[in-house]
Amino acid sequence: MTEPARLIADYVRRLRWSLQVIPAEDRDGLVREIESHLTDSLAAGHDSLEAAIAAMGPPHVMAARYIQEFRLAGALGDDRPAPLIHALLIRSGRSVAAFGGVLAAMLLYLFALCFAAVAIVKPLFPSHVGLWSLPQGSAFGILTDPPAAPEMIGLWILPLALAGALACYTLATLVLRGTGRHVLRASH
Amino acid sequence: MDIGSWQSQLRKGAAELVLLSVLTRGEAYGLEILGRIRAGGDLVSEGSLYPLLARLEKAGRITGRWELPAEGGNPRKYYSLTPEGAALAEAMRAAWIDFRTTITTLVEDQP
């Protein structure tokens, strides 16, 4: 790689790194566009490349500008659940979608919590946690009074419960983000 | 307030109007847009242009498409105004002309 090409590759790599909060599908386009601009500038001469990089500033400064503009456009889903729930609850009195979204997400978070509890309690009280097949149907989870029937999955419950917790947590966050995007955009 | 930071705020406020106006002249990619703006003065730099383009695209005022030049080389992202963007550009232009008239009366027409 020639020296200017390395300069471009380095700038682009650092810019991509600083743009982590931007959704991946947007980030790729932004970074490709800057790469294209710098490559075109280089074609006009090394000085022109240096002028372009100077005008953009360091990659983290450039990234900060992108992030600020994305915030202004309301295009940045806040990944932290708490502020989103708060923002949606304020609107849930007026919007059925916000109310439904928050309710669904809360339930899913609750499920995630239950799954996590199963995984945590299993090593502590192995005989009280598991999956039982009973005449009246099957029982799953933490039971204070476990049935006499043999428990069916043993320690396999650990990865299953952890996967369940993760799946519910991810789904809840997606529901929340989706609702957030829908409702907050509609209110702008 | 020092004149430099005041000027930079003026520029910032004008950048969106300038960008939309430049695109009313037809589709263009980043470097071309910069060229058109620089032909009329140094209002927008690389550093502010691309983030601004990203916001306007996210907000649905402009739309972008990637194209590989026929002669080979770099892929470029061409931007054009959406109908909403064109309407906004027109409204901003009218507001700007009003504003300019007011400022001219108040500031420039001093005896």
Task: Summarize the structure in words.
The complex is a heterodimer of chains A (188) and B (111). By secondary structure, chain A is mainly alpha-helical. Chain A has seven helices and two strands, in the order ααααααββα. Chain A has two domains: 70 residues, no CATH class; 107 residues. In chain A, strands 1-2 form a two-stranded antiparallel sheet. The radius of gyration of chain A is 25 Å and the shape is elongated. By secondary structure, chain B is α+β, with helices and mostly antiparallel strands. Chain B has one domain: Orthogonal Bundle (Arc Repressor Mutant, subunit A). Chain B is built from four helices and three strands. Chain B is elongated. Chain B starts with a helix and ends with a helix. The interface between A and B is medium-sized, with 26 and 21 residues.
Question: What characteristics describe this protein?
Answer:
heterodimer, A: 188 residues, 2 domains, 7 helices, 2 strands, B: 111 residues, alpha+beta, Arc Repressor Mutant, subunit A, elongated
Order of helices and strands of chain A: HHHHHHEEH
What is the average of the pLDDT values of chain B?
A: 89
Q: β content of chain B, as a range?
A: 5-15%
Unreliable segments of chain B (pLDDT under 50, ≥5 consecutive)? none
Give, in spatial order, the strands making up the sheet with the most strands of chain B: 1-3-2
Q: Could you tell me the strand content of chain A as a percent range?
A: 5-15%
- The total domain count of chain A is 2
Reported CATH architecture of chain B: Orthogonal Bundle
Largest interface by residue count?
Answer: A-B, 26 and 21 residues
Residue-averaged pLDDT of chain A, rounded?
85
Total strand count of chain A, please? 2
- Give a quick account of the main beta sheet of chain A: strands, pairing sense, barrel closure: 2 strands, antiparallel
- End-to-end separation of chain B in angstroms reads 26 Å
**What is the helix content of chain B?**
55-70%
CATH topology of chain B: Arc Repressor Mutant, subunit A
Quaternary class: heterodimer
Estimate nothing, just give the exact number of structural domains of chain B. Answer: 1
Low-confidence stretches of chain A: none
